[in-house]
Amino acid sequence: MNMDLTQRIQHYYKSMSKGQKIIAEYILTHYDKAAFMTASKLGHTVGVSESTVVRFALILGYEGYPKLQRALQELIRNKLTTVQRMELSEGMESSNILESVLKKDMNNIRMSIEELDKKAFQDVVESIFEAKNVYILGLRSSSVLAQFLGYYLNYALDNIKVVTSGVSDIFDQMARIGPKDLLICISFPRYATRALEGLKFAKQNEAQTVAITDSQLSPLKEHADICLTAHSDMASYVDSLVAPLSLLNALVVAVANRKKGDLTSHFSNLEAIWNQYGVYMGKDYTLDE
């Protein structure tokens, strides 16, 4: 069924029971809260049983409540303000924060693995090697991801250009992008408007485009030749970048494996420079007393 959650609710509303209609009305009115409720909590909130909530998911065509919940999260995730994110995390007990956040990050990686598109990943690696110049665009919280990817790719390649907020506007930094170039645009909810504009700009200039984002529903996908996804479900106002960072790690390793011989020689030269100028602490380093 090629309909989003609100369309499904509207389509099946007349055939719903009284209790299911109550759930539907609550979701449409309070989607920002319902998206992160368990079936039990949603049922308790609207005054119906947990089984009624499960049957509500089934009547909409979902395999179960978790699938409905995921659809609702995908539908509204970019509409959540920072204040709403904070409100959603208020129920998290302080004593369980560490364990809860680590488990959420682990789940993000697990879900990213399950939805991994290996062909798309290999296509991105090939595109990096075929490009005249590789532009890496990331803004706001995604700027750290762009900097990370650019930092490590720079060791293997000499055509990497990181585009992010700074003295120059992103369009100044991308002014020369063209048909033989590649733009890797990284953006996760809440998606930066300027990042999407940069992606469109690259596309208009006939550059190849890659989107690294959270799902196939991301607004970046429409303007990308290749789309790689990694889950980034948030905890509080903090964007979870663990799975995205792991995906970028994999890209770096794939590129490094292809450049292994050159990198070995390059790092041998770098080690001599680092030792000469004391870039890293040596084995004989001691703290002054």
From TrEMBL:
One GO term (biological process): carbohydrate derivative metabolic process
One Pfam short name: HTH_6
Range of residues in the leader sequence: none
Domain HTH rpiR-type: 3-79
Gene3D superfamilies (alphabetical): Glucose-6-phosphate isomerase like protein, domain 1, Winged helix-like DNA-binding domain superfamily/Winged helix DNA-binding domain
Keywords: DNA-binding, Transcription, Transcription regulation
Record domain SIS: where: 124-261
Protein name: MurR/RpiR family transcriptional regulator
Species per Swiss-Prot/TrEMBL record: Gehongia tenuis
